[in-house]
Amino acid sequence: MASHRLTRAPKATLTRAALGVTIAATAFAAYPAQASSVPEAAPVQQQLPAKPADAGKKSAEDRAKPTAAQLLALAKKQIGTSEDAKGGGTKFQKWYMDSPRAAETVKRDGGNRQGYLNAAWCAMFVSWVGEEMGARSTVGWDAYTVTYARWFKNNSRWGAAPKPGAVVFFSWKGRKNLSAIQHVGFVIRDNGNGTITTVEGNTGNGKVEERTRPTSQVVGYGYPDYSA
Question: Is the residue at 147 inside a domain?
Fold first, then answer.
């Protein structure tokens, strides 16, 4: 395949993550009872503004979106999935090869559909998860990490905060321009110590794995539009 810069992710040493409500209360006062033969009147109920008919309801479009937690649960279920001796044969590569997107990216990058069966597959893993969750329009799909990152940036969903469920793009030498991107995965959490925990396909072991990565190797993050 031409120009698919989806190099394997190097091994990393796992680090420990550190985790870190304010409860509000209201009070009311009762008026003293009056000494009288007249029966005490029932207290007046405070009138609260009526809620709109659709309050607390999600739109059909929002209900169709997965939450970040739901997407990450599916991604983590794939942990342990491994490529074959040729560096391919995963269900992610097979799915991408047969997808309409493959025809578009072959036209863009050259090669042929069959080439995806043994191509580096980190971006195909991310794309597959989004497709399985019915969230292609917000997670995106591509086989080339650089173009994938540009898609998020062009849609104003690009930034520097490691939010859970964000699509994270790496450059192993710590370069910050999009053209230097070499690998992609999902953020599970920010560990608060200069590292993030991720789930990635096509790691250095040729598998889907959970990894801990230094944020110094992150080029940026793409933010799918998840349901709250």
Answer: yes
Q: How far apart are CA 184 and CA 203, in angstroms?
A: 10
Distances (CA, A) of 139 to 130, 178, 213: 5, 18, 21
93: left (phi over 0), alpha (psi -120 to 50) or beta: alpha
Six-digit token pair at 56? 């607390």
User: For the chain, what is the domain count?
Assistant: 1
Instruction: Tell me if 153 is assigned to some domain.
Output: yes
Is residue 20 in a domain? no
Residue labelled with tokens 């979106």: 65
Q: What is the chain's pLDDT, residue by residue, as a tens digit (228 residues)?
A: 333 455 455 444 333 333 333 333 333 333 333 333 334 444 444 444 444 455 455 555 556 799 999 999 999 999 999 999 999 999 999 999 999 999 999 999 999 999 999 999 999 999 999 999 999 999 999 999 999 999 999 999 999 999 999 999 999 999 999 999 999 999 999 999 999 999 999 999 999 999 999 999 999 999 999 998
Q: Is residue 188 part of a domain?
A: yes
CA 130 and chain centroid, separation: 9
**Model pTM score:** 0.76
Which amino acid would we find at residue 128? W
